[in-house]
Each structure stands twice: as structure tokens, then as C-alpha cells.
């Protein structure tokens, strides 16, 4: 099925993406005077390809609980799981339990309650994460692989859950890796279903308008997404990535935790407020109601 085949292709090729991307850019630049960004635009066709089409998950009595690491064959070929605030982390034996717990604590800190929290709205977000079976696979290092013998199990696990990216342990920019891919799931599933007018993966949302504004200003260069051939999937990824950049930059994490180079040119919160006021207003009006920036005490552990 197209829905899951794209996710599988994306995950299996993830570790090679950066090398191929930079080589491709060099080649294209030498062959053409036309910039790749002229060829990639954000259009109204948006796939929900990594999200279950209907809710199938159940709700626990305590939405905010951090579970224990459990040896489980529920998500083959993964061997253990840990559920926190509607997100289930799954891993094989090479992932350390310490890393798994630290990712879980990071999720819990993002979904803590503060004086700014809208408790009902935050609970709806967590409920949607549970209902749509939100799962994040953890892999060790950039050279991870899924053996051929496990491919059918991998396909089934993806088909039964909302799975929009992975988290890798022991790689450069580890904090960014963890925060980014937690946020991909929170925005694609939690915010999409909870605040559809603001964060929906559709062409009528404030996120869509803010993304187009950032593309037009030149602060968000979407040329690298030309390697995603399915137009509707590409558009979902463009929105997903910018949703992450909005929150990560408004939390002012980039200068401290990286990355230095990316498709997003803005480095600090102050610069973000000045250059992309539409996106910052979207953040300010919504995110403090449901999410909090994780503390340096947990992020510095990674």
C-alpha cells in the first residue's frame, strides 16, 4: 500500500539521505542555472500517509503516566516498549534502557502542566495520541537496518500504528534528533486532530499559511524535499518539518543544541519573532496551552 510503502522507504533510506542530498545538489548546481527551490512548491494536496485513517486505540485511566520498559512481542520486530502520555516507544535489544527512559521523560516534560496549560485541551491532545496508536521506533546509530526476514513484521507494525519517523540513539545532534522526532508525532497526530484550524495538515490551517509565508520569505528552503516523488506526501513532510521548526525555534533551542546547517535559516527566538511574525503568533496563541519546553537538566543528559 502506498500509505506504508512510503514510510518504509523513507525509514530504510534515512541513513543515506544526507550524503545523497548533498551530492545531488552539487551535481544539479553544475548542470543547471535554475535553483531547485523553483521546482518545489507547497500545494493543497496533503497526505495523511503516516497516520491511521481511524482511531483504534484505547485510553488508560491515567493519561499522564510513564510506563515501565516491558519486554514485548506486540510490535515485531521490536522487542520492548515503553508508553508515556499517549506515545509508545518501541526498540530492539541494542537500544539502551537508559536512552529509552530519557526519551520518555522528555515526552513527559513536554506534556507537563503549567500555569499556562489548558488542561482540557492538553488532555484531548494526549487522548488523540492514544486513539491513533502513536508509536516511535528507536534505532541505534545511523547505520541501523531491518533484516529481510523481519520486513513483513515491520510492514504489519507500521500498518497498525501511526508512525511518522524514528529516533536514533548515539548520533550527532542527539538533542535535536530526540526533540524533532517527538514533535513530528505530537504535531502530525496530537495537534492535527486537536487544533485542526491552527495545526491541521490541510491547506486551510494557520500552519499551512505560516509555512507558505516562510517559503516566500526565503527563510524556509524546501528544495531538499524534491526527493519525495509523491506530491501529497511531500507536502505533508514540508508542513511537518516547519511545524517542528516553529516550536523548536520559539523554544530557543537551536543555538544551544544545533543544528548549524539546515533548510531553516533562523537561529534564535528573537530573530524568529522579527522575521516570521505569523509563525510566532501561531506558536504563542496555541503551544503554551498544551506543550512545554523540556528542561536543560534532561536535555543535557543526551
Characterize the structure shown:
- The structure is a single chain.
- The protein has 302 residues and is an alpha/beta fold.
- Helix content is 50%, strand content 7%.
- The chain contains 13 helices and five strands.
- It has a five-stranded mixed beta sheet with strand order 1-2-3-4-5.
- It is globular.
Number of helical regions: 13
Taking Cα atoms only, what radius of gyration do you get, to the nearest Å?
Answer: 18 Å
Number of strands: 5
Principal-axis shape equals globular
Task: Label this structure with key terms.
5 strands; 5-stranded mixed sheet; 302 residues; 13 helices; 50% helix; alpha/beta
Short description:
The chain has helices at 2-12, 14-31, 97-110, 119-131, 151-159, 174-194, 196-199, 206-217, 231-250, 254-257, 269-275, 277-290, 296-299, and strands at 70-71, 80-84, 87-91, 134-140, 167-169. It has 302 residues and is an alpha/beta fold.
Amino acid at each position: 500500500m502506498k500509505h506504508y510503502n512510503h514510510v518504509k522507504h523513507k525509514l530504510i533510506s534515512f541513513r543515506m539521505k544526507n550524503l545523497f542530498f548533498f551530492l545531488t545538489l552539487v551535481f544539479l548546481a553544475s548542470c543547471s542555472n535554475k535553483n531547485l527551490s523553483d521546482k518545489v512548491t507547497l500545494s493543497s494536496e496533503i497526505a495523511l500517509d503516516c497516520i491511521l485513517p481511524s482511531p483504534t486505540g484505547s485510553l488508560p485511566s491515567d493519561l499522564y503516566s510513564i510506563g515501565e520498559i516491558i519486554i514485548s512481542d506486540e510490535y515485531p520486530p521490536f522487542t520492548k516498549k515503553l508508553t508515556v502520555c499517549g506515545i509508545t516507544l518501541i526498540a530492539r535489544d541494542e537500544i539502551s534502557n537508559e536512552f529509552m527512559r530519557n526519551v520518555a521523560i522528555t515526552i513527559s516534560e513536554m506534556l507537563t502542566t503549567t500555569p499556562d496549560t489548558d488542561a482540557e485541551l492538553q488532555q484531548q491532545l494526549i487522548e488523540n495520541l492514544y486513539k491513533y496508536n502513536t508509536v516511535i521506533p528507536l534505532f541505534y546509530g545511523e547505520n541501523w537496518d531491518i533484516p529481510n526476514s523481519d520486513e513483513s513484521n515491520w510492514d504489519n507494525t507500521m500498518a497498525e500504528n501511526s508512525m511518522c519517523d524514528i529516533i536514533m540513539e548515539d548520533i550527532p545532534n542527539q538533542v535535536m534528533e530526540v526533540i524533532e522526532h517527538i514533535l513530528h508525532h505530537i504535531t502530525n497526530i496530537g495537534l492535527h486532530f486537536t487544533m485542526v484550524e491552527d495545526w491541521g495538515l490541510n491547506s486551510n490551517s494557520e500552519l499551512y499559511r505560516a509555512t507558505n509565508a516562510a517559503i516566500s520569505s526565503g527563510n524556509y528552503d524546501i528544495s531538499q524535499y524534491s526527493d519525495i516523488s509523491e506530491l501529497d506526501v511531500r507536502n505533508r513532510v514540508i508542513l511537518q518539518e516547519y511545524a517542528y521548526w516553529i516550536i523548536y525555534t520559539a523554544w530557543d533551542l537551536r543555538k544551544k543544541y544545533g543544528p548549524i546547517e539546515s533548510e531553516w535559516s533562523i537561529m534564535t527566538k528573537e530573530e524568529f519573532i522579527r522575521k516570521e511574525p505569523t509563525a510566532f503568533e501561531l506558536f504563542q496563541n496555541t503551544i503554551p496551552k498544551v506543550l512545554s519546553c523540556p528542561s536543560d537538566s534532561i536535555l543535557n543528559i543526551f
